[in-house]
Amino acid sequence: MIEIKEIMAILPHAYPFLLVDRIVEIEPGKRVVGIKNVTYNEPFFPGHFPGRPIMPGVLIIEAMAQTAGVLVFNSLPEGDRNKQVFFLGVDNVRFRKPVIPGDQLRMELEITRHRQ
User: Fold this and answer.
1) CA-based, 20 to 30 A from 74: which of 7, 27, 91, 108?
2) Rounded to the nearest 5°, which phi and psi values hold at 47?
3) Span 65-88, mean pLDDT?
């Protein structure tokens, strides 16, 4: 398990844009499971949407990208961990139901392809 302080040391993101709270499973080079606890205090809820708060889809994707960033960092050899890694795209995204305050967003990601 990787707690928030270690995640903050790995990722360049900070509040309010750090969107992963904990890594509960990790297999370097293979897969990762991250958690985002969604609370009513999130800065985007007052405007998205007033009276019916829903986490924006782009932020769900960003949370997934940050979770993947922790996986990539932990998959690199020690000497390469100072390199920058960028999330370059996403295809065929579908959201099955809205993410609302009180939900726990569980992000399960696996490496299916690696490009350099």
Assistant:
1) 91
2) -105, -5
3) 89
